[in-house]
Amino acid sequence: MTTDPALFNVKLNVPADQEDIQVGVLASALEDLALATTMARAENDHRGAWTVTWILDYEPTAAALLEQMRLHYPDTTLTEADFEIAAVPRVNWLEHSYRQFKPFTIDSFFIYGSHYEDPLPANLTGLQIDAATAFGSGEHGTTAGCLLALLHLKADGVEPATILDMGTGSGILAVAAAKLWERARLWAVDIEEPAIHLTNHHAAINHVSAQIKASHGDGFASADVVVHKPFDMVIANILAGPLISMAPDLAAVLKKDGFVILSGMLDEQTDDVLVAYQTLGFTLRERIDMRGWSALLLKK
C-alpha cells in the first residue's frame, strides 16, 4: 500500500448507558481540532455502546487530547488510556469514517451514508448523508425530534408551499422536508458558509436540489428571507438562547396559521423557549422529548 502522508484516527469508546447529550459533549470537545467527527452506536436500536471518532491532520498525544477534553468537560473521568490513536493513510480516511456510520431509522426515515450500497427498505423515506459529516446525520435527539415533528405534520395533512430552515447546518431537515412535500419550495439559511456547501451537497445526492435554495446570511435579515417571506413553515434547530431572542423575528416571517418547529434546547430549557413564543400568540401543538433534548411544534 502506498505510504502517502497519514492522517490520524482518534477513537473513544463510550458505554451504552450514556445519553447522546453526554456523548455529544464529548464529541464536540475535540471537534474544532478535527477534519471530521462521527458518533454512532454499535447497534441500530439505540442501545449499543457508542464510538466517537475524530480524524486529525496531525499526530496528537493522548495527554493533549485529554487536556482539551477537560476544557469542555471538566468532570470527565476519562484517562489517556481511553483514547486510541492510529495513523490512517489519506486514501483510506473516508473509509474509516464510513465504518462508524451505520444506517438507522427515525420512524419512517431511513438515514444512510453515501457509502451504503444495499437496496433501501421498502416503505421508508431515504435520507442520504455523507458519512464524513455524520455528526449532523440525524441521530442526535434535537434533529430526531424535528424529523418526527415533520412526519407528524405530514400525517395530519399539512401541506406547506414555502418552508424556511433557519440555521440549516448539514441541511438534513431541509432535505427531509423536501422529500415529504415534493411541491414545496425551501430556503435553507446559515451564518456559516461551509454549512451552505454541505446543504447543497446533501440536496444534490438526495435529488432535491430543484426544491432547495441554500444561502449564507445573517439570520432573518438575510436577503432570501426578506425577499421570500412570509413562509408557511419555519424550522429552527439551534440553541435555547438564540431561539428565545429570535422569537419576534421568526414570528414576523411566518404566515398566520403557519407552523414552526423548534429544537436545540435541553429538556429543562424548553419551558422558557415555549413561553417566549406563547407570548407572541403561538400555540403548542406537540412537544417531543428525545434523550434529554426537546423539540416543539407550534402554530401561529
Structure description:
With 300 residues, the protein is of the alpha/beta class. It folds into two domains: 1-100, Alpha-Beta Plaits (2-Layer Sandwich); 141-299, 3-Layer(aba) Sandwich (Rossmann fold), CATH 3.40.50.150. Helices cover 31% and strands 31% of the residues. The chain is built from ten helices and 14 strands. It has helices spanning 20-29, 62-72, 93-100, 141-155, 172-180, 193-205, 223-228, 240-245, 247-252, 270-278, and strands spanning 6-14, 36-41, 50-56, 83-89, 104-106, 109-113, 125-129, 162-166, 185-190, 212-216, 231-237, 254-266, 283-290, 293-299. It has a seven-stranded mixed beta sheet, sandwiched between helices. It has a four-stranded antiparallel beta sheet with strand order 2-3-1-4, sandwiched between helices. The chain has a three-stranded mixed beta sheet with strand order 5-6-7.
Distance between the termini: 60 Å
Radius of gyration: 20 Å
CATH superfamily of the largest domain: Vaccinia Virus protein VP39
CATH architect. name of the largest domain: 3-Layer(aba) Sandwich
* Secondary-structure class: alpha/beta
User: In this structure, how is the largest beta sheet organized?
Assistant: 7 strands, mixed
Number of domains: 2
Give the SSE order as H and E letters: EHEEHEHEEEHEHEHEHEHHEHEE
Query: What is the CATH topology classification name of the largest domain?
Result: Rossmann fold
Task: Note the total helix count.
Answer: 10
Backbone shape:
globular
Quaternary state reads single chain
- Please indicate the percent range of residues in DSSP E strands (runs of 2 or more): 25-35%
Instruction: Count the E strands.
Output: 14
Name the CATH class of the largest domain.
Alpha Beta
Mean pLDDT: 86
Helix content: 25-40%
